């Protein structure tokens, strides 16, 4: 089982749960797909795009729960492959969620990635 990860502000994810669908953060909507990270790219994504943001959640999903025509692995930062979802994200596909603690300097420490 391959897990992929989405970092989201708690309020954004909680609003999505009420509707059953996460349509994406503003950057996802602008790019036309929902950005995910892998184990290897997660810390870089967190550092680059979420520094100083509080009350973040780490959302884990099983890549095999998405249709191959919707979840595409595409090169991005430094040639690393990132999973991109070209469809709305049903919140029911969530495998697990964990809070992402913020350090005093505004950086974040990833929680344990296993369930």
Notable traits:
ADP-ribosylation fold; three-stranded antiparallel β-sheet; 115 residues; 3 helices; alpha+beta
What's the SSE pattern?
A: EHEHEHEEEEE
Number of helices in the DSSP assignment? 3
The N- and C-terminal alpha carbons lie at a distance of 12 Å
Major sheet strand order: 1-4-8
In the CATH hierarchy, the third-tier topology is known as ADP-ribosylation fold
Into which percent range does the helicity of residues fall?
10-25%
Please give a structural write-up.
- The chain has 115 residues and is of the alpha+beta class.
- It has one domain: ADP-ribosylation fold, CATH 3.20.170.
- It is 22% helix and 32% strand.
- The chain has 3 helices and 8 strands.
- The chain has helices spanning 10-19, 26-31, 42-50, and strands at 3-9, 21-22, 34-35, 56-62, 71-75, 81-85, 89-90, 94-100.
- The strands form 3 sheets. It has a 3-stranded antiparallel beta sheet. Strands 3-6-5 form a 3-stranded antiparallel beta sheet. It has a two-stranded antiparallel sheet with strand order 2-7.
- The longest helix is centred in the N-terminal third of the chain and has 10 residues, at 10-19.
- The model has no long low-confidence stretch (mean pLDDT 93).
What can be said about this structure in brief?
This protein is 22% helix and 32% strand. The model has no long low-confidence stretch (mean pLDDT 93).
